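Recall that a protein's primary structure is simply its ordered list of amino acids. Everything else, from secondary elements to tertiary packing, is in principle encoded there. The following example makes that idea concrete.
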Amino acid sequence: MGRARARLGALYNAGMSTTIPILQTLKAGCAACSMHQLCLPMGLEDADIERLDRIIGRRRRLARDEALYKAGDSFRNLYAVRFGHFKTYQVNAAGEAQITGFQMAGDLLGMDAIGAGRHHCDAVALEDSEVCEIPFANLEELFGQVPALLRHFHRLMSSEITREQNAMLLLGNMRAEQRLAVFLVNKSARYAARGYSPTQFALRMSREDIGNYLGLTIESISRLLSRFRKLGLVQVDKREVTLLDPARLKAMAAGTEQCKPMA
């Protein structure tokens, strides 16, 4: 907090407006956040939410393509996404990047570093975004005082493990069209959980990123989207997607319905 005040004072003395820095360093109010049912405070009493509020650091804003953290960085904070989208990826020995996930409002970033004390992947903003910084040392202390918070954190970690396992399945025995169907159905469910339309949403990541995540080429992604359009499953306008037949897409994702192989 002392560093934040010094920074604001320096900007003021330089004759700059302090409106944006003040907004960026305000503490995030969990109870007033639209994502509070998806983030750490879920199910907590008001008094416990206030205690969590007191340990949360600043709200940090990131521009598109800006890194939140990089592989090898020391672990200090978890990051709750307030708005915007992120991607996480790892770089192999050959210098090739493999996207490991896409995160959106309500998700928690940084759990990969809890064990080793250093991040194993890079996290980069896909668009202008904002996160709440949660100092993990302070959070651990609060776990001992608020058991419900610890239980919820365990559920979050379990969900993250499940998500990683599902990603491995995508790159395993699934056919190409099933991988894309799973991706779209998953996005639909995640938007619905946040109160948005489950059938109309924007894909904030590029088709190249989608292909990287699903283990497909960008050409395959384009051909599959074209096929899904012809089958009446989706409507696509640049990055805007409308699911026209969600039930059929879910059947395809489950493997109970298949397309003919691509030519």
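The mean pLDDT is 83. The radius of gyration is 20 Å.
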